[in-house]
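Morning run. Coffee first, then this:
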Amino acid sequence: MTNQQCIETSPLRSFIDEYFEAWRGSVAEHLLGYFTEDVVVNLWGDGGTLTGKKMVGERWVIPMLKNYPGNNHHITNFLEVGDQVAVEWLFIAAHASTGKEINIQGCSIYWVSRGLIRRGHVYFNSPQAKRDQGLSVLDHTHHSDRLGQARRASAI
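And here it is:
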């Protein structure tokens, strides 16, 4: 017989699991229900600081769900202290128009109050962003696609 410990999932961990599952569901209204009205989210790179649920929806959630419907966040590490959580994740999705799969590692730090995210910092490692420094974080057209299009256009 093996000695197995039963580890209970904390309410905060359950909340974060549900939040990431809502990303997969690709329904913006459902996903935005996890944020306070006055939420502040800082996106790594040139995504900037998004203030308020409306801006978070328009500039991050809706474009991401449109470009990457049915995406998956696989939690690789999780740490919580009080109302703050740090989550390392792997984002796997296929782009809606090109079908190209992406795998992006990232980390999010969230502050949760009364069952809602009130503040967040979202960091991610994307080789695309390093190659195309002038592109918006939400411009997910792959660099190689644009390069190939430019080459085909110049050959005509």
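The beta strands are 35-43, 48-51, 72-81, 84-94, 101-113, 116-125. Good start to the day.
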